[in-house]
Amino acid sequence: MKISVVIVTRNRIDDLRVCIDGYLKQKYEDKEIIVVDNGSGDGTREMVPKEYPMVKYLWLPDNFDIRTINIGVEMSKGDIIWRTDSDSHPEDDDTFDKVVEIFNQKPHIDIIATEDIEVKKNSEPWDWYPLKIDKSKMPEDGFKANFFPGTGAAIKRKVFDTIGGFWEFGFEELDFCTRAIVSGFNVRYFPNIRTLHYASPQDRDNPNRWVMASKQHIRYNWRYFPFWRAWGRSTEIFFFQMFLALISRLPLSAMLEGMFGMMSVVFSTIRNERNVVPKEKIRDITLGVSVFHTQMRYFSQVFSNKFRRWLKKDLIKK
To answer: Between the chain's N and C termini, which has fewer beta carbons within 10 Å?
Structure first.
């Protein structure tokens, strides 16, 4: 099986070097690395062809956000697409060997979600998986999942061929997995396959990211859930997102844009994109977990991180 690593980048020249080097260290030989550049102006355009002539590189004149992954997939020749960010790479140099072994031995598995290790947060795993599990007792098939972190995931090409690619930035992995699950593909989480995420601060417009993510989360729910369930989930999301904007001290202009954006996206999604998931698939795409539970877990992590930063600053002052 050939593995195609697809990396989307923009103005992250130093992070991209670390990323590419991490993939070049993979012992698995039948691989290719593809970098699609969303209009970087920091020297990336000159650096990649000069320092990494073995990498397929495409520079785009504009920023097409995360949808650029779809261009990279079209450029690729692999049986497996490795979805990653330009500030991430596998922890172990035999990761691709493990992935190919899983796909060969478990042909019913179509997408592998990996453990996201936040390097700048004491190398702690991102607690994204919504169910309580004992990672030391992982099933042979991994844990059933409805999502994967964008920092590292292995996806069979046939999934892209069947359901298409990613939508715009914001819950794009969740939307992709929902379409995959509804189409009969299986997503599994293997916490023993670890991806290092350096969380680059470059080119991150936090107010704009919040606006986009808020609208996309609402869009997702109205796209796939029955009317009253979409209404209830969206109401919870709306208030959680506004609370997040307040504690993040986002500017009023962004909050107003996000508030009206979340309202307007309901009507555009109902008019153009309604594709309600069959009742028997609802539990598969949610794992039986409510929006309230998911959001509360998220905020507990946010406040925990804020407390640790405050404690660290307090100790430095002392």
So the answer is: C
Q: At what angle do helices 172-182 and 206-224 cross, to 10 degrees?
A: 20
Q: What's the CATH architecture for 3-197?
A: Alpha-Beta Complex (3.90)
Up-side HSE of residue 2: CA atoms within 13 Å toward CB? Answer: 11
Q: Let me know how many helices (H) and strands (E) the chain has, helices first.
A: 11, 10
CATH 3.90.550.10 residue ranges for the chain: 3-197
Total-model pTM: 0.91
Contacts of 89 (CB under 8 A, 6+ apart): 18, 19, 21, 22, 23, 152, 195, 196
Q: How far apart (Å, rounded) are the C-alpha atoms in residues 144 and 189?
A: 6
pLDDT, tens digit only, all 318 positions of the chain: 999 999 999 999 999 999 999 999 999 999 999 999 999 999 999 999 999 999 999 999 988 888 999 999 999 999 999 999 999 999 999 999 999 999 999 999 999 999 999 998 889 999 899 999 999 999 999 999 999 999 999 999 999 999 999 999 999 999 999 999 999 999 999 999 999 999 876 555 589 999 999 999 999 999 999 999 999 999 999 999 999 999 889 999 999 999 999 999 999 999 999 999 999 999 999 999 998 888 887 777 666 666 665 655 555 555
Any long-range contacts for 116-122 (C-beta under 8 Å, 24+ apart)? Answer: 116/149, 116/151, 116/152, 116/195, 116/197, 117/91, 117/194, 117/195, 117/196, 117/197, 118/197, 118/199, 119/196, 119/197, 119/198, 119/199, 120/198, 120/199, 121/199, 121/305
